[in-house]
Specification:
The complex is a heterodimer of chains A (about 350) and B (about 290).
Chain A: H1 2-19, E1 24-29, H2 32-50, E2 53-58, H3 62-71, E3 78-82, H4 83-92, E4 117-130, H5 131-134, H6 142-146, E5 155-158, H7 165-171, H8 179-182, H9 186-199, E6 203-207, H10 210-218, E7 224-228, H11 229-237, E8 242-257, H12 265-275, H13 278-281, H14 305-310, H15 315-319, E9 322-323, H16 326-345
Parallel strand pairs in A: 1-2, 1-3, 5-6, 5-7, 8-9
Antiparallel strand pairs in A: 3-8, 4-7, 4-8
Helix pairs in contact in A: 4-16, 7-9, 9-16, 10-11
Chain B: H1 5-45, H2 57-64, H3 66-98, H4 102-113, H5 120-131, H6 136-143, H7 157-181, H8 186-193, H9 198-226, H10 230-235, H11 243-253, H12 258-281, H13 284-287
Helix pairs in contact in B: 1-12, 2-3, 2-12, 3-7, 3-9, 5-7, 7-9, 8-9, 11-12
The chains are: A alpha/beta (about 350), B mainly alpha (about 290).
Amino acid sequence: MKISTSLTVAATLLATTAFAQDKSVTIASWGGSYQEAQSKALFVPASAATGIAVKEETYGGMSDVRLQVSTGAVTLDIVASGSGSAARAGAEGLLEPLDYNVIDVSTFYPTLKSEFCVGGDVFSTVYAWNTATYGDAGPQSWADFWNVEKFPGKRAYRSKVAGALEPALMADGVAPEDVYTVLDSEAGIERALNKIRELKPNIDVFWGSGAQHAQLMKDGEVDMTTGWNGRFDVAKKDGAKVAYSFNQALLDYDCFAIPKGAPNKDTAMAFLAEISKAEYQDDLPKYITYGPTNKAAFDTGVIDAATAAMLPSSPANAALQLPVSLEWYAKWETIADEMYQSMLTE
Amino acid sequence: MVETNADGLRRDEKLERLALFGLASPALLLVLVIMVIPVGWLFYVSFIGADGHFSFENYERMITQKSYARIFAKTFQVSLLTTGLCILIGYPLAYFMAGLPRHIANLCLITVLLPFWTSLLVRTYAWLVLLQKKGLVNSWAISLGLWDEPIKIVHNMTGTLIGMVHIMLPFLILPVYSAMRAIDRDYLKAASNLGAPPARAFWTVFFPLSTPGLFAGALMVFVLCLGFFVTPAVLGGGRVILVSMKIVSNIELFVNWGAASALGVMLLALTVGILWLASRFLRLEQMTGGGH
């Protein structure tokens, strides 16, 4: 019985593979509610529209791609990635350059795509506060986040350098548009680190994951933290006393890339072109509060005004924020993170 | 030609050794495949630089960047403190259990081993829930009037040590207990008979006899602590950074595996160094529980 079942399953799998041989892509993402949202809004409808069969996997990030590329055994056609790690992987030669003649990005925010990676959703690194401690009038800038006299209480901050230096410089009085110019030297990075050293006695926890910073706010373990906006919205839905602001937040995006030597490179390119269209991206906020990278998605009428006001990439919210510079991360992240980790051990 | 007894015995002995070797060979092969080759590969990779060529850069980084020294120092500090606390808590408990009738002692042993039946991760997160600001420990202590404000006992060194001691304790208690069980209590009676007060009898007779178990347990706890990851990562709040955590961040950070491999090699070398040092003062087979 058992054997015959598995034979049937195997036969079905073989048949599916054979059927989809000319047009199929394997996509790896981060799993969980995030990938579920991507699947419902993007992958499944785009697959139905194009006839390209989609096989979904979860993966551990660019180190997996590195392993596949370096051993010449690439199985993934499309990977979802953070923009910074995609930029670094691209510079390292792990990704195929994207063909923007195939993928139409004319209505994209210009900063939300790069040579190797096309934006899929927009999220923000924000400061969030406990409304039980500060009420709704919490901190309104990074300077407030640093101001322990005006806002006494315990902070949490990220344990990695990504998204950690820009707030420190803004708190130190650097205008948002000058942040990456100042950071473009070791002295500038050191200036940001010194600002974090100043706050460090008030930082109780250096968080390592989105789940962690959401939990810290839910449990009331800290009064203020940095973090990703979508996680706080979920925590709030679960009853957490948390609010956040987009003012001076870091506008960042997740994107899709094609590993070097992907088995179905051309199909993958066509599939990316499809899921980058406004008609798919406008469905994503139904499942997770991350915004579209394609501006036209706000014009289809699917995203209502109330939802749009909550999204990082709505024009009003985006105007308040500093877009993350991928060039800076490609050039400095390794050096800056070593310096950051060193600061943490002090 | 007459074969002497000695010749026959020698031949038998040779055959037996060969047969034993044959029996052991699957295990030896396994050790070769899953231990020697990977460690050798790790060693090799640690000398590959970012450009893919032979280089000392991964080791140079550990010397030139002060954070590595701090991380190793912190790792040893946490390991030593955990071992020390385990001895302080575990030794008296083992002593108490060794004095109990066997069936009651066995019951106690089961309770010592009980935490082993729960996953490490679950136990670690349980501590997080218990120790946090609004956790059970703080809220009970405040309602009992022990302290007024929630005290900080997690996301720092204190929380890390509480979690690690809890997890490591059975590794200390078991060898100490079995060493104590093997001590002939008549020695203590003899000491008293010769006029030694209980404290003197304990320190001059019982304690020295229990040291092989104590050293075995302490060494095991110490070495396990050196490479520990989950508990300090969760309970340390990102402020207690140990070698194992640095290995993970180096894998994510650097283009090649060398940076992380070099840390692994260094940790291995230090661990072997400590075992060697320990073996100079003690007989190694005693420490691993082989001798008595």
